[in-house]
Amino acid sequence: MIRKTVIAIETSTPQASVAWLDRAGLLAEETFSSDRSHNSGVFGPLGRALDVCEPGGVAVLLVGTGPGSYSGVRIGIAAAQGVGMVHGCAVAGVPSMLGTAAARAGGRWLAVGDARRGLWYVAVVADGRLEATPELLDAAGFGARVAAGLAAGEGVFSLDEVGQLGLEAGLAGRVVREWPRAGLLLEAWESWGEGERSVWLDAAPQPVYLREAFISEAKRGHPLTRG
């Protein structure tokens, strides 16, 4: 049996994964579909990760917090918190964009995506670290920011389909589509010092909300509006 395993869950996109490692390095990584009804696919690989641990043998459980699929991220967080309660281990939520090949390659990148309802987000990832919370921009501001970043030598990647970003062809063709991976979240975690890790450990895992939730009003005559 392996002692003090670190496990990561990444379910923010349809290409989901679970990975686990100990001090010897990456032991395994399994991928599965996390699209809509397939979110339950996390439990198989997560169970296999736990099978290699002795009781109390999980050191930390990481979970990707998006941005991405709202239901996928919430299921990943719920699964992580459940394991944390049962195994008495720490749980850390880490933005999924840090678990990408682009982020792990180093340098300066713009992580961009569709924030819905006419807005797009831009987050600066420098040397595998998130510089600040994502910035929300309208279509014109978004295109200008991407163009300026490319002109300044910044790379640009997105967790969304590039075609849905609304960029002109010359800009869209230079955006890299990325899929976050649990194994790369683990790699990022291992590269950070204790101070950086404590930032994520001290905060309760929650989805990367790009904006406040949209709440529609009940239609006239709906049971909620009666009485």
What does this structure look like?
This protein is α/β, with parallel strands linked by helices and 227 residues long. The chain has two domains: 5-97 and 180-201, Nucleotidyltransferase, domain 5; 101-177, Nucleotidyltransferase, domain 5 (2-Layer Sandwich), CATH 3.30.420. It has seven helices and eleven strands. It has helices spanning 43-51, 70-87, 101-104, 139-151, 169-172, 182-191, 194-201; strands at 5-10, 15-22, 25-33, 58-64, 90-94, 108-116, 119-126, 129-130, 135-137, 155-158, 176-177. Strand 7 and strand 8 form a beta hairpin. The N and C termini lie far apart (61 Å). The model has no long low-confidence stretch (mean pLDDT 89).
**Radius of gyration, in angstroms, nearest whole number:** 19 Å
Number of domains: 2
| Helix vs. strand class | alpha/beta
Tally of strands: 11
CATH class of the largest domain: Alpha Beta
- The CATH architecture category of the largest domain equals 2-Layer Sandwich
Low-confidence blocks of residues = none
- Helical content (DSSP H or I, runs of 4+): 25-40%
Fraction of residues in β-strands: 25-35%
Number of helices: 7
The largest sheet is: 6 strands, mixed
**The CATH topology of the largest domain:** Nucleotidyltransferase, domain 5
- List the helices and strands in order: EEEHEHEHEEEEHEHEHH
Mean pLDDT, all residues: 89
